[in-house]
């Protein structure tokens, strides 16, 4: 549940992120405790479409640069791809895999998803890198 909430909050409000992540998520929940049905439907649809595209593109190994699921890799890649999908510009499974592997091969990205992952600048930077990567692929 926390990963889904991280995605929703960062997809909608990453520009307002301030650490720690738990307080950011609590603030997001508080300000969105009575969402409209349109908001709920749109959010559910973008989440489903994005996670489905990752599963089709990468299988069960998605978001696991090592063995365990990495929440920073999850949230940044999910937001990056969701921004691409919501832009209306089509993307193939090949392009998703290419963007994902490009990010995981980038030394700066690897550092910001493995150290001090809730730091304000690192969260904003990893989201920005992922958005740029998925938009430009």
Terminal CA distance reads 29 Å
Helix content: over 70%
Which oligomerization state do the chains in this entry correspond to?
Answer: single chain
Which value, in Å, is the CA radius of gyration? 14 Å
The assigned structural class equals mainly alpha
Strand content: under 5%
Number of strands: 0
Question: Helix tally?
Answer: 7
Which regions are unreliable across 5 or more consecutive residues at pLDDT < 50?
A: none
Order of helices and strands: HHHHHHH
User: Overall mean pLDDT score?
Assistant: 96
Q: What would the principal axes of the Cα set say about the shape?
A: globular
Major pleated sheet: none
Q: What key phrases describe this protein's structure?
A:
137 residues, mainly alpha, 7 helices, 0% strand
Write the layout of secondary structure elements.
Elements: H1 2-13, H2 21-31, H3 37-58, H4 71-87, H5 93-105, H6 107-112, H7 120-136
Helix pairs in contact: 1-2, 1-4, 3-4, 3-5, 4-7, 5-7
